[in-house]
Amino acid sequence: MVRKRLSLRTRILLVLAALLLTTLLGGLVTMWHTEATDDLFVTLIDKNLASFQAAEELENSLLIQKGYLTYFFLDGDSEWLRKLDTGTQEFRKWLNKARQSAYTPIMMEILHEIERHYEDYLRQREQVIALYKAGKRQEGYARHQELRQEFAAINSLCARYQLIHEHTIARVRGESRARARFINSLALTAILSVVGLGALLIYILIKQILGPIRRLALEAGPESDANVPDEIKALSRRVHNLIEDVDLAHSQLEKSQEYLLQSEKMALVGKLAAGVAHSIRNPLTSVKMRLFSLERHLELSSTQKEDLEVISEEIRHIDNIVRSFLEFSRPPKLKMQKISLSDVVDSALTLLSHRLESYGVSVEVKRHERLPEMRGDPEQLKEVLVNLIINSCEAMVHGGTITLQEGKGQVASLGRVAFLKYSDTGPGVPASIRDKIFAPFFSTKEEGTGLGLSIASRIIGEHGGFIELTSKEGEGATFIITLPYREEDTWAPS
Questions:
Q1: CB atoms within 10 A of CB 94
Q2: In terms of pTM, does the model score above 0.90?
Q3: Which candidate, 488, 477, 475, 480, places its Cα nearest to that of 456?
Q4: Which residues are within 8 A (CB) of 22 and not within 5 positions of it... i.e. 6 or more apart?
């Protein structure tokens, strides 16, 4: 018969379950011992100690009363009699407390005997006091000596009552010690069990987990990992490197596919733009010139002038579309010079000041200092900002606010950078199209070409930087333009 071997996972789980069960049982036993010890101490404190204290107070009160009577015999001062009455009340108070804390028939019987003898003691004491007051000191003294026998009987009963509680306390202490020895034995057994189970778990981990992992790390990793004492770290580093390699390969593959698609589109658009440039742009120029001539030489009514203005505007729109296609297919070369992005911002805002006012859009520029100079094409960078501002104005149909925040910092892949954070209060960009916003020919406008943001992204990329979009639908859009600069390109303030 073939014996089926337990899996590694099952063995580890069984050992962990045994450890958990042992720990749980140890905790339960400890809780039981704590509760039982608490019960013992409650019994000891609430009952025995209270009764023991009452017995001591009874004996002390009795001794005090004996002393007061003796003092009265010596000097006859009535103040001792008043204190004697107070002592009597105190004795009866402690006797009542002793009755309340007594919990066995023997205790009740002893307290009953103490009360009976005390009442006899009080009657005889009153007789002795009466004789002392009457001046019969000899007779009173004789009766006083007889009274001491009654005192001795009460004192003996109080001592016996104390002895009962001493025996009870000793018994409780013995039970507590026996229980503690039992708990110690259980704890020692639990400790030995945990040590044994822990050793078994360590053996399983070393022989069947860490050993194979080390061999895998040595086989999968470079030779430099052979002397690494932590095989888990070595394997983790190797797996992490493999994951990074896979992610990098996947990312490069996606970029390659994207570049291939863009190249195909650009090739197609280049052919289309060349045809458009020869077939449309020249006739459009001729049409614009004829319209300008007609507008100057003909006497036109207001309606006819309005029609001519509409025709001219539509021709300009067609011309802009053609120009966008030409720029995308045959982008102009960068005319690099030393510029500051702050100057580009000011130039773009000056250019579009009237349009911003007509749309009811206000602009806030947050600038702590002028951004450092860098190598760039001011006209093409201005085109990027103009494109963003026009898009925002068209999106904020009821007006709004554009915020331009300038700053500089450091990016690991670029070094020192200047950045421009462009934000508006428009409707934002839906998450479903956020990844497509910079793609060529993608537009949410009916008359848009879908090339504006694509050209802007290309211009920033040609300057060695990048543009990012963060947006929440209904909360506006934020574009972050990041451009690198070198230390030698920065300007020195005069």
A1: 21
A2: no
A3: 480
A4: 190, 193, 194, 197
Contact 437, 453 (CB under 8 A): yes
Burial 462-478 (b: 16+ CB within 10 A, else e): ebebbbebebeeeebbb
Contact in structure between 157 and 134 (CB atoms under 8 Å): no
Tell me the C-alpha to C-alpha distance, in Å, between residue 75 and each of 69, 78, 130, 333.
10, 9, 15, 130
Domains delineated in the chain: 8-204 (1.20.120.1730), 229-330 (1.10.287.130), 335-489 (3.30.565.10)
Lookup result for tokens 């690494």: 228
Question: What's the chain's length in residues?
Answer: 494
CB 371 within 8 A of CB 332: no
Q: Helix (H, G, I), strand (E, B), or coil: what is residue 477?
A: strand
pLDDT in tens, 144-168: 888 888 888 888 888 888 787 777 7
Using DSSP, how many helices (H) and how many strands (E) does the chain show?
13, 7
Output the DSSP codes for 351-407: HTHHHHHHHTEEEEEE-SSPPPEEEE-HHHHHHHHHHHHHHHHHH-TT-EEEEEEEE
pLDDT one-digit tens code per residue, 70-119 = 887 788 788 888 888 888 888 888 888 878 777 778 888 888 888 888 88
**Which residue do the tokens 């806030």 mark?**
364
